[in-house]
Amino acid sequence: MNTIMKFAPFGVFALIGVTVSQFGLSSLVPLGKLVILVHITMLFFILVVLGGVARMSGVSIFSIIKILKDELLLAYSTASSESVLPKIMEKMERLGCPKAITSFVIPTGYSFNLDGSTLYQALAALFIAQMYGIHMPISSQITLMLVLIVTSKGIAGVPGVSFVVLLATLGSVNIPLEGLAFIAGIDRLLDMARTVVNVIGNSLASVVISRWEGQFDQAKAKEYIREATSKVA
């Protein structure tokens, strides 16, 4: 397996090289569009979906982003959510979440609350289907959604793991697995975006659960947000 992983980049480079030689540099344009689409989708999910959840929980999504700015930058650059787990738990406790909740919700969410990974897999599957000219009726899209809900659970927060899980997803909706080779070269760029969503989603989850349990310290949260905002300013 180690040997395969070492030589995999050369195989991906060769596949992309053959495609470019046959169809020209214009063949790379769809990949660039996919990268942009994934980042826009992740940003929309953070601001609209997670932002709405945060608002209902009595906090601002922008405040959470300011508090976690260093961890988000590290997670984005390394494409690994595991690298920032201890600091996230520490900051969520300072935000007003009890330790008993953060120590359970956040680590558990790293395996079962991977919003970014699910979004990525859906976009990647649809991209490959369109690339092969495969029409996906509503039934196939529903099947894809259900499979994604299952396959995105229990995966580790390390770089590239969503790409591997995508192998199981494509086969369920009759999308050629060979299509993964075309996006393997840009997977790192996609991985960076989905990691940020996973980190913010799990951090927000600890706030939501704390509110539901009636254990969220609102005064402590306001004080910590004020301190974080003043430091940024």
TrEMBL record:
It is found in: Cell membrane. One of its GO terms (cellular component) is plasma membrane. The chain crosses the membrane at residues 36-54, 119-138. It comes from the Bacteria. GO terms for biological process: dicarboxylic acid transport. It is a multi-pass membrane protein. One of its GO terms (molecular function) is symporter activity. Pfam families: SDF. Keywords: Cell membrane, Membrane, Symport, Transmembrane, Transmembrane helix, Transport. This is Dicarboxylate symporter family protein. It comes from Paenibacillus macerans.
